[in-house]
Specification:
By secondary structure, this protein is α+β, with helices and mostly antiparallel strands. The chain contains 15 helices and 11 strands. Helix content is 42%, strand content 13%. The strands form 4 sheets. The protein has a 4-stranded antiparallel β-sheet. Strands 1-3-2 form a 3-stranded antiparallel β-sheet. The longest helix is centred in the first third of the chain and has 18 residues.
C-alpha cells in the first residue's frame, strides 16, 4: 500500500474525511482523545463532527455526562466516554498506578474525602478538593494533592466532567465528577482495546498501539495473534479491521489542534510529517506537539490558537518550505467559528 492510500485510510479512521454525526460519537470512535490542553482537545472533537459545531456543543456533552476527561493512558488526560474508562484502565491502569507509588490506605482515605465533599457541596472543583484533602490531613502540598487526584482517576473513582462557567471567554476548568461503577470487562481487555484503537486509528502496527496505550512493546506483541481473524494485515505489515471500506477524500486543508491523535498516536509518525519538520512539530523534549496545517494527510505548516482567534502578537503561522497558503484562511476561519460560544 502506498503512502497516499495509507493516509486516506487513516484520515477515514480518524473521522477527518467522513465526520461523525455527534460529538460523543467522535470520542467513541477514537476511544481516547489526548486532552491535557482542554481547548485543543475540544477542537479535536469539533473538527471531526458533522455540521459546524461550536465549543458550546462540545461543552454540553460534558455537562450532560456524555464525556469526561480522565488519566487513561501515558499519565495524560484524555477525553473519553465515562463507560469506556474501566475497559481502558483494565489494560493501562496498574502500570500507571505503580508509577505514583501512593499507599492504598491513603487513596482509600482520599476517596472517602472526595465522596464526602461531593455530597456536601454538590459541585466540586479541583481547588475545593485540594482544600478538602488538606483540611483532612491527607496531603499537604498542592502537587501532592494533584498526584492523589490522578491516582484516584486511575482507580476509576473520579474524572473531570461538567465545565465550570466563565464569563467572556472559553473556560479551561471542569468540576470533578464520580465515574460510573465499572461494567463487566471482557476476557481479554487488551485485545478489545487494540481493536478499538484500530477502528479509530488504523491501519497501524502493534508498536503503534503500544505507544498509544503507554505499554512496553513486549506486552502487545501477541495482541494481533489473539485478535485472530478480527484483524487483517496490509501488504506492508500494518493491521486494520476487516473491510475498512473505501478511502474517503478529506477536506483539502484543515487545521488540527495541538496533540492531535492523527499526528501523535503512533510510534512511527513519518506518514503525517516530513522528516525535516519533526523538530518543529514535535513531540519536543518537553512533550509539546504543535497544531498543524494538514493538506492531503500530511503536515504542511504549524499554527496557533491565538492566530485563529485573531489575537495580536508574534507571527503564529509557519508554512514549511515550498508550501502554499491555499485553504489556510478558510481552515482557521473554521476554528474561529468553533470557539464562538453559540
Amino acid at each position: 500500500m502506498d503512502a497516499d492510500a495509507l493516509r486516506s485510510l487513516r484520515l477515514r479512521s480518524h473521522l477527518l474525511a467522513e465526520p461523525a454525526a455527534t460529538v460523543p460519537d467522535v470520542a467513541r470512535r477514537l476511544v481516547a482523545v489526548q486532552s491535557q490542553d482542554f481547548a485543543a482537545g475540544r477542537w479535536a472533537l469539533g473538527i471531526r463532527t458533522a455540521g459546524d459545531p461550536t465549543v458550546g456543543d462540545v461543552d454540553r456533552a460534558f455537562d450532560e455526562g456524555l464525556l469526561v476527561r480522565a488519566w487513561t493512558q501515558r499519565g495524560t488526560l484524555h477525553i473519553v466516554e465515562p463507560t469506556a474508562v474501566a475497559g481502558i484502565l483494565a489494560v493501562t491502569g496498574e502500570r500507571q498506578s505503580r508509577a505514583y507509588g501512593i499507599d492504598p490506605a491513603v487513596l482509600d482515605r482520599a476517596e472517602r474525602v472526595f465522596r464526602s465533599a461531593l455530597d456536601a457541596e454538590g459541585s466540586l472543583t479541583r481547588a475545593a478538593f485540594v482544600d478538602a484533602l488538606q483540611r483532612d490531613g491527607v496531603a499537604g502540598s498542592v502537587p501532592a494533592c494533584s498526584r492523589i487526584l490522578t491516582a484516584l482517576s486511575l482507580r476509576g473513582v473520579v474524572a473531570l466532567g461538567r465545565v465550570v462557567p466563565r464569563e467572556g471567554g472559553v473556560t479551561r476548568e471542569q468540576y470533578l465528577v464520580p465515574l460510573p461503577p465499572a461494567e463487566t470487562v471482557g476476557d481479554d481487555p487488551a485485545v478489545d482495546l487494540f481493536l478499538a484503537y484500530l477502528r479509530g486509528h488504523g491501519p497501524a502496527s502493534t508498536a503503534d498501539f503500544a505507544w498509544w496505550a503507554g505499554l512496553p512493546a513486549g506486552a502487545t506483541r501477541s495482541v494481533a495473534e489473539r485478535a485472530g481473524d478480527r484483524v487483517v494485515r496490509t501488504d506492508d505489515g500494518l493491521l486494520s479491521l476487516p473491510a475498512p471500506g473505501r478511502a474517503a477524500v478529506a477536506p483539502t486543508t484543515i487545521a488540527l489542534p495541538a496533540f492531535d491523535e492523527y499526528v501523535l498516536s503512533y510510534a512511527e509518525r513519518s506518514l503525517a510529517m516530513g522528516a525535516g519538520d519533526r523538530t518543529t512539530i514535535g513531540p519536543t523534549v518537553n512533550g509539546m506537539v504543535r497544531p498543524v496545517i494538514l493538506r492531503g494527510g500530511i503536515a504542511v505548516g504549524t499554527w496557533s490558537l491565538s492566530l485563529a482567534l485573531g489575537s495580536s502578537g508574534i507571527p503564529d503561522l509557519t508554512l514549511f518550505d515550498g508550501e502554499s497558503d491555499a485553504g489556510v484562511a478558510d481552515a482557521l476561519a473554521r476554528v474561529r467559528r468553533f470557539f464562538r460560544r453559540a
